[in-house]
Write a structure and sequence with these properties.
The protein contains 4 helices and 5 strands; from the N terminus they run H-E-E-E-H-E-E-H-H. It is an alpha+beta fold and 128 residues long. The chain has one domain: Trna Endonuclease, Chain: A, domain 1 (3-Layer(aba) Sandwich). Strand 3, helix 2 and strand 4 form a beta-alpha-beta unit.
Length: 128
């Protein structure tokens, strides 16, 4: 079984190493829920980097509503993807905010239901 946290840590490390090896200063802001995980700066340039990693070879990732919103709001937002994270990690692939938002497809919706309006008896509200 694949440990998702291990996959994520490999991704964060690989992307951070990518930037630092090229002279960028990298700050982990993933716990601040900004809509990206790393801020990479060099001089007056800044990238807001959302990091995703997967164990397989296809760069298929899940983006949160907040991540997609920030991608649309910040021109310096970029998606960095590491594939085959736990076996033979491939080079980091970067996608612009436009590429990420255009490829995004809604798959899951959260329904916040009023507990008081439901029933414990499906026969009362459903025709079975």
């Amino acid at each position: 079984m694949v440990d998702p946290r291990a996959v994520e840590l490999v991704g964060m490390t690989r992307v951070s190493d990518y930037f630092t090896s090229r002279g960028w200063t990298v700050h982990d802001v993933s716990q601040e829920k900004r809509g990206w995980d790393l801020e990479a700066t060099r001089g007056n340039k800044r990238w807001c980097v959302e990091v995703k990693a997967c164990s397989g070879g296809l760069p298929t990732v899940l983006l949160t509503k907040n991540e997609l919103a920030k991608a649309g709001e910040h021109p310096d937002w970029v998606l960095a993807v590491v594939t085959r994270a736990l076996s033979a990690p491939e080079p980091v692939r970067f996608f612009t905010s436009a590429q990420a938002t255009e490829a995004a497809e809604a798959m899951v919706y959260r329904a916040l239901l009023d507990h008081g309006s439901g029933t414990d008896n499906p026969k009362r509200s459903l025709t079975l």
